[in-house]
Design a protein that fits this description.
The protein has 468 residues and is of the alpha+beta class. It is built from 14 helices and 16 strands. The longest helix is centred in the N-terminal third of the chain and has 23 residues. The structure holds 4-amino-1,4-dioxobutan-2-aminium adenosine-5'-monophosphate and magnesium ion.
């Protein structure tokens, strides 16, 4: 029965292959129905395989036409068998002339939430179980898929090993105290009893949480099997309701032995460009849609990113540019402060109008593991900043000197004994090494032009929101 079943994305090819007599079976969900007075109907059918709908002509003489056609409202699932033909109407090249129709599941027009009119993204977030049926979220799902695939192929082509780092961990890589705790202790009973928490009674016998980054474990593999990357979900209990932060997001983190900061920057730049090129090649229709409906300068900006070298600039130079800019920022800039999105966007959108890699950040605003520079003030950190988003990649050369690292941990309030294994990598056969992390959802944001990061992941987790 499935010998002639086709996804709509493939149907267009069939006609060009010169197989006009083949009976084609398609299945999907009705987007719209138009009934003609001459006793036939046009159905716009979508199955998510591509942005385009397939127009299906349903002739009145089809058995059961009168009943079925009533049921074919928006959202109804249906299968059609028929022949492809060049379309006489405007707006599509081919259509299916149906000779068989089966309604699989009706969708009551009185209650089906996705009606023909457009819906706000806020409304659709509350309908995350149905929003992939819209053009925007179907396209988002395909682009996200293409980005994920490109991430793997970029590293696989270069011989990097994909390593799986743990989701549950006892260490806070970023040291920012944004860990979601994982426990099997009965918190309600503990609270009622008024007793202090005894972690030795907990599942792992000590405090544990969801990982904020797989970097520390990736470093273990980089310093043994060589170039590697980890790619998975990461979690941060960051109580910030911005358009760029999620509590659960995906991050890809390559880690390379013998790389210094400049090598790290070069790899990061090729990586971003590679992903964009791949998505442009694989999801051309989807990007054209985002360009038309979401962000009018999208394609121009993506082309601009892939065709120029990224600017490389020290943090100190960036601060000077920002101070001399004459802009009135909400957060004033002075040496030593963390840059805000408004500053990153000024650099990438106005001042340079292209991506910028900032490096050598003040040590007090960066994590404990970054390699200290000789000036005593800065560390070998790098952030890749892009227009519309700001930071898309954060990375660094790692501190490979045992004693310097211990001192730095103490300065950051970390207990070196908690990181004994991380320190042993520096004790036994230490090597210079570097790596970075790219946020998947911010990459989806960059490539689709979507304004809110909550619309760049199927089921966003944010403060007070974990539905679905
Ligand atoms: O700059 P971050 O915090 O770096 C790290 O976690 C390092 N351990 C990476 C490494 O060197 N291996 O995060 C890296 C990237 C950011 O640039 C951003 O794209 C994304 O992860 N990111 C977030 N994305 C969505 N929501 C959040 N709350 C994010 N926090 C970071
Ligand atoms: Mg960062």
């Amino acid at each position: 029965m499935t010998d002639s079943l086709y996804p709509i994305a493939k149907v267009a090819h069939l006609l060009s292959l010169g197989q006009p007599d083949e009976l084609v079976l398609v299945r999907g969900w009705v987007r719209t129905k138009r009934e003609s007075k001459q006793d036939f109907a046009f159905i716009e059918l979508n199955d998510g395989s591509c942005l385009a709908n397939l127009q299906v002509v349903v002739p009145g003489e089809l058995p059961g036409y009168a009943t079925s056609i009533k049921e074919l409202s928006t959202g109804t699932s249906v299968s059609f068998k028929g022949k492809l033909q060049a379309s006489q109407g405007k707006g599509q090249r081919i259509e299916l002339l149906a000779s068989e129709l089966h309604v699989l599941g009706t969708a009551d027009p009185a209650t089906y939430p996705l009606q023909k009119k457009g819906h706000s993204f806020e409304f659709l977030r509350e309908k995350a179980h149905l929003r992939p049926r819209t053009n925007t979220f179907g396209a988002m799902a395909r682009v996200r898929n293409a980005i994920s695939f490109a991430i793997h192929s970029f590293f696989q082509e270069r011989g990097f090993l994909y390593v799986h780092t743990p989701i549950i961990t006892g260490s806070d890589c970023e040291g920012a105290g944004q860990i979601f705790q994982v426990t099997t202790l009965d918190l309600a009973r503990l609270a009622a009893s008024g007793r202090a928490v005894d972690y030795s009674q907990d599942f792992f016998g000590k405090p544990a949480g969801l990982t904020v980054s797989g970097q520390l474990e990736a470093e273990i593999f980089a310093t043994s099997v060589g170039d590697c990357y980890t790619f998975g979900p990461t979690f941060r209990a960051e109580n910030s309701n911005t358009t760029r932060h999620l509590a659960e997001f995906w991050m890809v983190e390559p880690e390379m032995p013998f790389y210094e900061l400049a090598d790290n920057m070069t790899l990061a730049e090729s990586f971003v460009k590679y992903i964009i090129r791949q998505v442009m090649e694989k999801c051309g229709d989807d990007l054209a849609f985002f360009n038309e409906r979401i962000e009018p300068k999208l394609l121009e900006s993506l082309n601009n990113i892939i065709s120029h070298n990224f600017i490389r600039l020290s943090y100190t130079e960036a601060v000077e540019i920002l101070q001399k800019s004459g802009q009135s920022f909400q957060f004033p800039v002075e040496w030593g402060v963390d840059l805000q999105s408004e500053h990153e966007r000024f650099l990438t959108e106005q001042h340079f109008a292209q991506p910028v890699i900032l490096y050598d950040y003040p040590r007090q605003i960066k994590s404990f593991y970054m390699r200290a520079n000789d000036d005593g003030k800065t560390v070998r950190a790098m952030d890749v900043l892009v227009p519309r988003i700001g930071e898309i990649i954060g990375g660094s050369q790692r501190e490979e000197r045992h004693d310097v690292l211990v001192a730095r941990m103490q300065e950051c309030g970390l207990k070196p004994e908690d990181y004994w294994w991380y320190l042993e990598l520096r004790k036994y056969g230490t090597v210079p090494h570097s790596g970075f992390g790219l946020g998947l959802e911010r990459t989806v944001q960059l490539i689709t032009g979507m304004v809110n990061i909550r619309d760049c992941i199927p089921f966003p987790r944010t403060p007070k929101s974990a539905e679905f």
